[in-house]
Design a protein that fits this description.
With 317 residues, the protein is mainly beta. It has helices at 2-18, 208-211, 242-245; strands at residues 35-36, 42-47, 50-55, 72-75, 81-87, 107-129, 134-153, 156-171, 184-185, 192-196, 199-204, 221-224, 230-236, 256-262, 272-279, 285-292, 295-298, 301-304, 309-316.
Amino acid sequence: MKRILCILSLLFFITACDDGNLTVDVIDFTEVAVQKCSAKDVIYKVKDAEMLFIEIPASTFTENETLVGAPIEVSINATTKVTYRKYDGSVSSSNICPTIPDATPNLKEEWNATSGIIQITSTAIKSTNTTDNSTRITGYTYNIVFKNITFQKPTGPQVYETFIFGNYATTVSPLAFGFNEEVDKSACSTKIYDFSGSEVFTLDVADYATLFANEVTSTPRTALISSTNKLSYRLYSGTITNDYFCATTIPTTPALLQQWNAIDGIEATSGIIEVSTTTLTTTTYQHTIRLKKVTLKKENSSFSLGDDYLFGTLITN
């Protein structure tokens, strides 16, 4: 009797485990680098005979840092897709990137994500000049995590509350800052410009007459970056000329591509404008403008001009 009860209990256990419960398959790409197809908006990971990829618009990866706790969120849908594939042999980019992917190895199994959220946290990649402590942004790293993602497998759905896809990195061209350090005062305002090609650096101070007085200095005159003492860097789609600055209506061409504004300074600490004045002739003065520990910011991204940046020299009479 005991033997019969044991057999019945075992059969019940097996049946209960199989009834309505799905096999959980493990997919692990943790140690695999993220790659991108050059000709289409697909980022992917391959590991031996497995592939995990995301079809997602490139515009999703904005050149801007995300704030802490506020990642970019994209819903998985008909245009943004997540897919897992398993093959009968080793795979490569040739199985996903070409318009007509390689037919071999053969596809054995495919899971399509039917719902979930893609969370993307963006961080700027910066290079540092150790001589002057200036920084430049050279790219962005995007940490990608799937939240509450459901894969539809051949045997049924499989859900992950959190699935870490990994880091996807892009590169950007650092701003050139190709200025000759000889600045000019605008003919129609007190703004001071340094421009070269498509780049423009603008200093707009409230008390121009005091800061650039035609008097030799023994110690530099100073002012702090603020809402009234503004510094901005602009990058345009074409060459800028003198005529641009005094146009009654701001020209539509060349188009403004980027604008970086200096953040407000802190007394004796950062964001300091220094002007030293010497004479060139009895009636001509040279004002040397230096920027101390100034940081430029665009949206959530920022970089430093360094401990001591020479903005340029201004000649006045």
